[in-house]
Design brief:
The protein is of the alpha/beta class. It has helices at about 20-30, 45-55, 85-90, 100-105, 120-135, 200-210, 225-230, 285-295, 300-310, 340-350, 365-370, 370-375, 405-410, 425-435, 450-455, and strands spanning about 10-15, 35-40, 55-60, 70-75, 95-100, 110-115, 140-150, 155, 160-165, 180-185, 215-220, 235-240, 250-255, 260-265, 270-280, 320-325, 330-335, 355-360, 385, 415-420, 440-445. α5 (about 120-135) crosses α8 (about 285-295) and α5 crosses α9.
Length: about 450
């Protein structure tokens, strides 16, 4: 890989799939540092429009003619080898880097890289650390997989040695990173279209932790069995966290009327401070503990940790309050894995409501199929579930699995559940059935959030 962030200003970088949340963030970092940037995507979006206004050449649609005087091509793992820009890049012998390799090159320019990994909670924990480091005035560069109001989007370019980013395990992309602090929140079965099984996933996380230098730190969830097993094999420093076990602990946990927790943070037997969260759910206590542990390693003050976590009200699409209509509260959440769904529904239990209606949009056929049985038991405790059609993302429908099949299986477990194909029909059904005091929860990693917005606006 031949790329020097500080010495290659004359090079033009082209992003294939520039509209993605992470790719757009990398492109914005380069634009702010004076690089020439171009990129393509299948459709226009607020992210591509923002980049265009910032000076990027944006092409809608993939075409070999989009590669104009390009020196480096960056592409995501979702881009197939048949993409015409991929083919043309190879034909022209243009240097090509994956998104992860390119992000790794940017990280290499910083000393204190905090890379947050885990099957669940990456965006939230990264955002918590972002808030804390901003409260401490560390001037960090931040790259997060969601929209964060405090930085006005998904990226912030700082001028310090601090770099805060998510580290995604999909296609082992996080193995291209350079973490000084590597956070592992949990290890669960996911992305089984790429990994053979959970053991292969754990092995990838083990390789990720081996990237941490000996003077660096692994921040690991001691309550998670597989994460704890990985932590035993590293040669770097380890600072663990958890509710049941670990170095950094949460004690005396209490929830307010909006399901947000407050707790006493301890380092072993030493009381540190009391934390008041502004995001709901017990799972966010664990996320906060991971953020606290990382912050302590960076010698951040107690005041900045307390203020940073208090001011963090969530990223967009993570238990996001969307509005209220006719007494019905609408909340949207990105949860697309059974474990995440259970955590979201656990948080809902402590949130004021009469009944809970949930609209779930499964994300990818491969995930729906590989975790089918887990999905059938993930929705206990809600009053009614509507399953939208599967969001295909990068995949094609082979007919092996469908939302109708999933709805029938869930219904057999005693939950009122239906598959409604069309978003417009779902919104109509909700208007006909929801009542004052009910809570509408839209769940999934696709475009299911539009249903809640359409309900509020119709």
């Amino acid at each position: 890989m031949q790329f020097d962030l500080n010495n290659d200003f004359n090079k033009k970088i082209h992003f294939i799939g520039i509209g993605g949340i992470s790719m757009s963030g990398l492109a914005e970092i380069l634009l702010l540092r004076g690089y020439k940037v171009s990129g393509s995507d299948m459709k226009s979006s607020p992210l591509t429009e923002k980049l265009s206004k910032s000076g990027a050449e944006i092409y809608i649609g993939h075409d070999k003619n989009n590669l104009k005087d390009v020196d480096i091509v960056v592409y995501t793992a979702a881009i197939p080898s048949t993409n015409p820009e991929i083919i043309e890049s190879k034909a022209l012998n243009i240097q090509m880097l994956t998104r992860a390799q390119f992000l790794g090159a940017i990280m290499k320019d910083h000393k204190y890289n905090v890379a947050v990994s885990g099957t669940h909670g990456k965006t939230t924990t990264t955002s918590m650390i972002a808030h804390i480091t901003l409260s401490e005035n560390l001037d960090p560069t931040i790259l997060v997989g969601g929209e964060l109001d405090v930085i006005g989007g998904n990226v912030r370019t700082g001028k310090s040695e601090y770099f805060i980013t998510e580290a995604c395990e999909y296609k082992a992309s996080f193995l291209s990173f350079y973490p000084y602090i590597g956070v592992v929140l949990n290890i669960d079965a996911d992305h089984l279209d790429f990994y053979k099984d959970i053991n292969a996933i754990q092995d990838a996380f083990e390789k990720f932790t081996n990237l941490i230098p000996k003077d660096g730190y692994l921040v690991s969830n001691a309550d998670d069995e597989r994460t704890a097993a990985v932590a035993k094999k590293v040669s770097c420093n380890v600072l663990s966290f958890g509710i049941e076990s670990g170095d950094i602990r949460a004690k005396n946990i209490k929830f307010n009327d909006l399901a947000c927790a407050s707790f006493d943070a301890y380092n072993k037997d030493k009381f540190l401070f009391r934390i008041n969260l502004s995001v709901p759910g017990k799972h966010n206590v664990l996320n906060a503990l991971g953020a606290i542990a990382s912050s302590l390693i960076l010698n951040i003050s107690a005041e900045s940790i307390i203020i940073g976590l208090k001011n963090f009200g969530g990223t967009h699409r993570r238990f996001e309050y969307k509005g209220i209509k006719d007494g019905v509260v609408v909340i949207d959440d990105y949860a697309h894995h059974p474990t995440e769904i259970k955590a979201t529904l656990a948080a809902v239990k402590n949130y004021p409501h009469k009944r809970v209606f949930c609209v779930f949009q499964p994300h990818t056929y491969s995930r729906t199929l590989s975790l089918f049985n887990e999905f059938t038991t993930a929705f206990s405790g809600i009053d009614e579930l509507i399953i939208a059609d599967i969001y295909a993302a990068r995949e094609k429908d082979t007919g092996v699995v469908s939302s109708q099949m999933l709805a029938e299986a869930i219904k057999s477990n005693g939950i009122k559940c239906n598959n409604i194909h069309n978003f417009k029909d779902i919104v109509t059904y909700l208007h006909e059935n929801l009542k004052d005091g009910d809570l509408l929860l839209t769940v999934g990693a696709g475009d299911v959030f539009q249903i809640g917005e359409d309900f509020l606006n119709s």
